[in-house]
Amino acid sequence: MKKLSFVVAAGLMSLAACTNNTPAENAAENVAESLENAADNLEAQADNATNESTEAALENAADNMHGAADNVEEAVDNGAVAANAAAH
């Protein structure tokens, strides 16, 4: 039981260490989430489109928006890795 408690405590400590984001990282993550939400809205509009060309255009826009969100998330990840490497 003591081993399990230690493992759980170590896991929680490592999780807490991962959540110390800078304001810039938090802002970028919010931008990425906003882009994902906009893409989801475009996909919903595509589902309700009345013709195929409008549906295709909306789906392409949604795909592009998802790609932009992925790029923002990758930039955050790369910046966080570089900041952690510089700190150690």
Regarding quaternary structure, what we see is single chain
Alpha-beta content class? mainly alpha
Number of helices: 3
Low-confidence runs of at least 5 consecutive residues: 4-9
Proportion in β-strands: under 5%
Let me know the number of strands: 0
* N-to-C span: 33 Å
**Main pleated sheet:** none
Question: Helix share of residues?
Answer: over 70%
Order of helices and strands: HHH
Query: Looking at the structure, what is the overall shape?
Result: elongated
| Mean pLDDT across every amino acid position | 79
Cα radius of gyration in angstroms:
19 Å
Task: Kindly describe this structure.
- By secondary structure, the protein is mostly helical.
- The chain has a domain of 52 residues.
- 89% of the residues lie in helices and 0% in strands.
- Helix 2 packs antiparallel against helix 3.
- The longest helix is centred in the last third of the chain and has 36 residues.
- About 7% of the residues have low confidence.
